[in-house]
Amino acid sequence: MQSPWGYPDFDGHEVVHFVNDIKTGLKAVIAVHSTHLGPGAGGVRFWHYAQDGDAIADALRLSRGMSFKNAMAGLPMGGGKAVILSDPRRTKTPDMLAAYGRAVDRLGGSYITAEDVGMNVGDLVEVSKHTKFVSGLPAAEGAVGGDPGPHTSYGVYLGVRAAVRRKLGKDSLSGLHIAIQGAGSVAGGLARLAAKDGARISVADIDQARAQKLADEVGGSAVDAAEILTLEADVLSPCALGAILTEQSIAALRVPVVAGGANNQLATREDGDRIDSRSILYAPDYVINAGGIINVASEYFGNGDEAFVKAKIEEIPGRLDTIWDESASSGLNPAAVADAMANRLIGRG
Ligand code: NAD
């Protein structure tokens, strides 16, 4: 039997919890990668995995990403992530969410949960009836809280602009073609902001109707999900799921910039070199997509208003520029530069 510590995505995680609630059928993995800077914080993903091992790998990879993301965003938080293993029909019941809330509560605050793919604010309200270690709850007008998606989108939009400025020497997205993978919360916000600047949007989702709806809204085109990664465009913005940048997909890219909100876009660390060696400018995912967690952290700690959150998100382009500068001077690819910076911040450098 394979040792759990030898699991390919295991990277010195502090604790990995396997949750099994017989009565409600809840099966979840809660991984806490690091609490060096504070409680392990990160969203919970509700997803159907073909194999249980895929869910474990996702929790391990995503929680490590959260350690890096929170550290690079300057937040007093470590990294954690949960995945709930759904059935193929994605059946989600209040009882199941209650069991998940109780499981989070038992961890005593070493993990703070929030929204991720497949979860919404209403689900988190259910979870919050059973634990206080949750953020991303509905907020009163003007207060910080609620769906982190729009904040993530805003940060990604600013990051796309920074990448375009750097790689294409353009201060505006006007007239540029942006290919967006995914038509969900993050993708939608990005598409609306970029279209407002005059960008031309192509969008793809495995849910074609969703892609078409977003395309219609922003005056763009919906393209086949199988085609989006090979579309000729100025920017590819992956805003769906992770591990989409592989040896094969990188070889087929026809864009000068990859900058998007999805977590864990690179399938392996070597893919950071592959994308760099094609002279494609890559925005490290956990740096560009930190807007949501910045909002979540501010809500959780009660330490800021909307203007504070906006100002923190507006630091993202500068952080990306620092990474790209160091990449240019060191010859290391941007993903490796970001990893090294983050590891130093969490005491592992
Ligand atoms: P979402 O559930 O609202 O949307 C995701 C969309 O991606 C769905 O419409 C889904 O059908 C689509 N999709 C899945 N696989 C696809 C594929 N192969 N091709 C095309 N489309 C596909 O999720 P979201 O909140 O918009 O999150 C998107 C990504 O951004 C995820 O990787 C998430 O982890 C990451 N992220 C989200 C936030 C946030 O605040 N919501 C923050 C940071 C990172």
Any key phrases for this structure?
13 helices; alpha/beta; binds nicotinamide-adenine-dinucleotide; Rossmann fold; 11 strands; 5-stranded mixed β-sheet; 349 residues
The secondary-structure element order is EEEHEHEHHEHEHEEHEHEHHHHH
Dominant shape: globular
Number of helices: 13
Strand content: 15-25%
Quaternary state of this entry equals single chain
Level of helix content? 40-55%
Total number of distinct structural domains: 2
- SSE-based structural type: alpha/beta
**How many angstroms does the end-to-end distance come to?**
31 Å
Number of E strands:
11
Main sheet characteristics: 6 strands, parallel
Bound molecules: nicotinamide-adenine-dinucleotide
Instruction: Write the CATH homologous superfamily of the largest domain.
Output: NAD(P)-binding Rossmann-like Domain
Explained architecture:
The chain has 349 residues and is of the alpha/beta class. The chain has two domains: 4-128, Leucine Dehydrogenase, chain A, domain 1 (Rossmann fold, 3-Layer(aba) Sandwich), CATH 3.40.50; 149-289 and 317-345, NAD(P)-binding Rossmann-like Domain (Rossmann fold). Helix content is 42%, strand content 16%. It contains 13 helices and eleven strands. The strands form two sheets. It has a six-stranded parallel beta sheet with strand order 8-7-6-9-10-11, sandwiched between helices. A five-stranded mixed beta sheet has the order 1-2-4-3-5, with helices on both faces. Helix 8 links the parallel strand 10 and strand 11 (281-282). Helix 1 crosses helix 13. The longest helix has 21 residues, at 52-72. The radius of gyration is 19 Å and the shape is globular. The structure holds nicotinamide-adenine-dinucleotide.
